[in-house]
C-alpha cells in the first residue's frame, strides 16, 4: 500500500534516455564484517547466485540500450560490488569517495584509478568522508545529500563547491536506511521527480522534502524495508527489487515501467539495484552529440 496523490489525468508520457553505468562484479563478495544492520556474517552467502543476479542486472541495462562499464573486483574488498559508493559523476566531473569504514577504504582508490585510466579530465579527491552516490542523488535542480550514518555533513559543502549545484542536506535517522539511496530514488532527473520513505528522515528533512517535492511518490514501510527505494530509473524504466510489490502500481500510474529484479544475495550486504550501479553522467555536450548522431 502506498499513499499517493489521487491522479485523474492519464499518466505522463515518459522517455528513457541512454545512460552509462559503472558496475563491479561480486566475484569476491562476502559478508565477513557488519557495518550496517543488514549484514550478518553468520548467514551464508551464495556467491555463484550473487554473480548470476548481478549479471542479470547488467544484462538488463544493456538490453535497455544503456552502456555498462565494468570495474575489476579486488579480492580484499568484499563490498566493492556496491559500485554506487565509489564516486559521484555529474557533467563528466568526478568527485571521488572517502569511506567511513576501514574495511572499504581501498575502494576509493580503485575507482579513482578507473576514472584516471578512462580519460576523465576533472577528478577531485575528496577531503571529507562521502560514500559517493550512496549519499548523493542528482535531480534537475539539486544535489540531494544524505548524512547521519556515513557521509560527513562537511562533504556537502565540498560537493556543492565542486559541482556548482545547490546541495540539499538530508538527515537520515533509521540505521536500516544508512545511505540516502536506501530511502530515496530519483525517478525523473530531467524534472524534480522522486520517490522516498519519509520515516527514514528527521522531521526537518521530511518537511524540506515535502516542500521541494510535493508530488513525490511516497513509499510505505514494508516496501522500504525490502529496499524498494534502492532503484534506478532511466526516465521510463525503473529497475527495483522485485519484493517491493507495493511500488509497482503507483509507478505504472505515473507512466513508468517498473522492472522487478532479484538481488537477494546482495541484500545480505545491505544493498540492491542502485547500490550496484554508479551512473556516469556525461557533460551536456556529449549527450547532445549522442542525440544528434
Ligand atoms: N555493505 C555495504 C556497506 O554497508 C553496502 C553498501 C550499499 N551501497 C549503497 N549504495 N547503499 O557499506
What is the count of β-strands?
Answer: 15
Q: CA-to-CA gap between the ends?
A: 43 Å
Low-confidence stretches: 287-293
Summing up helix and strand content along with how strands pair, one would put the structural category as alpha/beta
Overall geometric form: globular
CATH class category: Alpha Beta
- What is the CATH T-level topology? L-arginine/glycine Amidinotransferase, Chain A
User: Which strand order spans the largest sheet, edge to edge or round the barrel?
Assistant: 2-1-15
Question: How would you spell out the order of helices and strands?
Answer: EHEEEHEEEHEEEHEHEEHEHEH
The ligands bound in this entry are: arginine
Query: How much helix is in the residues?
Result: 25-40%
Proper CATH architecture:
5-stranded Propeller
* Mean pLDDT, all residues: 94
Residues in β-strands, percent: 15-25%
Give a written overview of the molecule.
Mean pLDDT is 94; it is low at 287-293. It contains 8 helices and 15 strands. The strands form 5 sheets. A 3-stranded mixed sheet has the order 2-1-15, with helices on one face. The chain is 25% helix and 19% strand. Helix 4 links the parallel strand 10 and strand 11 (217-218). It has helices at 47-63, 105-117, 154-163, 203-212, 221-225, 248-253, 264-267, 284-292; strands spanning 20-23, 67-70, 87-90, 93-96, 123-124, 136-138, 143-147, 167-171, 184-188, 193-196, 217-218, 232-233, 237-241, 257-261, 278-279. The protein has a single domain (16-292), classed as L-arginine/glycine Amidinotransferase, Chain A. The structure holds arginine.
